[in-house]
Amino acid sequence: MKTKADTLILFGATGDLSQRMLLPSLCALDADNLLAEDLRIVGTARSELDDAAFRNFAREAIETYLPADRRGSMAEFLNRLSYSQLDVTTTEGYSDLADKVGQNREVAIFLSTAPSLFEPTIKGLAAHGLADNNSRICLEKPLGTDLESSCAINDAVAGAFSEDRTFRIDHYLGKETVQNLIALRFANILFEPLWNSQHIDHIQITVAETVGLESRVDFYDSAGALRDMVQNHMLQLLALVAMEPPSSFDAGAVRDEKVKVLRALRKLDAKESVTGQYRGGASGGEIVPGYDEELGRDSDTETFVALKGHIDNWRWQGVPFYMRTGKRLAERVTEIIVHFRCVPHSIFPGAKLHPNKLVIGIQPEENITLSMMAKVPGIEQEGMTLREVPLNIAMPDAFTGKHKRIAYERLLLDLIGGDQTLFVRRDEVEAQWHWVDDIRATWEAETNQPKTYNAGSWGPSAAIALAERDGVSWHE
């Protein structure tokens, strides 16, 4: 579906995501002249607002979350906005929304609401002509809590929107460095011949947060780190790292290769996972409470998980994928580290050779670093002194004049343009849930309880042992 939408409907338009990400992203796109002049944006939520009040709400959000040099002519952007009050759980209000949209429009719908509201919303849209072949829908995570609930959500969506009109968002796929991973692999002859088990020893993926529960108390305690981060963001990163070269940079070709990787994930053994839960400690120079204190009750929800995964195919046989994610860790960082194998024979007696290492930083800084061995400058009579040195590509430096974009900018533009390449297909979501459900079933069978770790650390010591049993150290 590559037709451009001329109307964008934002459900949950007064919510946190809309304030922090969606409205600022759309304003930035407008400032860069990337939105068609005739694109209209209709916000809808339960709040009692008229068009003018919604525009004031949007102005405050943009002034708070978007740098001044990216706002352009905000007045022109705000004139695109209108508002329709709607309680999605009732039939009232959908007719007003349909009237606001008008007839014969190409409509893109963004659901920034709780998944429990997806089904009544879709029924309301379908009943009022907003789910026809001129409409497409975008869904925010989480898409269920397990495979069964995910299938139920997807079935409800499929009842009104075909797969080619369904856009499942994972905002990590909108990040520049994540997209650059595809370019790094498939636009450079340097890497692809080495991107296999013959030359790569292991791969690490870390998504570390320094924050605690913040405003997500109820959701997080029902989800935990495995469902919140591994099932979507981390498995998408893994799929991009490990997939075979697609035949083209086309939505179908790229997603076909990703789903093959996800289906090739081996079921984890009980000893290949570690869970943890943070206790009080020091984070960011401040004393912070433990998870149970923040929650106000005891809980066995994991706030940290480390996994040792395997992909059973020819390219990756024997290469472990170490993944870890958690809250209240030592640093806020998301990165992929590709550890190459050592040279088969050293000609430098006494020199300690380090294997090459490719570090792909996703946040807080977007950069790519390749560590290599080089000679230390100087005159030596015997042998040669070597040292590990980095070849560093800082993305802002490499592309002078390009400002850092919000990940949602790319994704909203693709939704409006009908390009599904950076969105997640149903079979991908279900393959991810299948693997994650097996992990949770193993934990339940083993009566797994999270191990404690201090806030401000890198997680429980068992996570270090998970890697060190194989002679591997986590990149820190």
Give a description of the structure.
This protein is of the alpha/beta class and 476 residues long. It has two domains: 7-140, Rossmann fold (3-Layer(aba) Sandwich), CATH 3.40.50; 173-405 and 426-468, Dihydrodipicolinate Reductase, domain 2. Helices cover 34% and strands 21% of the residues. The protein has 14 helices and 17 strands. The chain has helices at residues 16-31, 51-65, 74-78, 94-101, 118-127, 147-158, 176-186, 217-242, 251-263, 291-295, 395-398, 407-417, 426-445, 461-468; strands at 7-11, 40-45, 81-85, 107-111, 135-139, 166-168, 200-208, 273-279, 281-283, 286-288, 304-309, 321-326, 333-340, 357-363, 367-375, 386-394, 451-454. The strands form three sheets. Strands 16-15-14-13-7-12-11-8-17 form a nine-stranded mixed β-sheet, sandwiched between helices. Strands 3-2-1-4-5-6 form a six-stranded parallel β-sheet, with helices on both faces. Strands 9-10 form a two-stranded antiparallel ribbon. The mean pLDDT is 90.
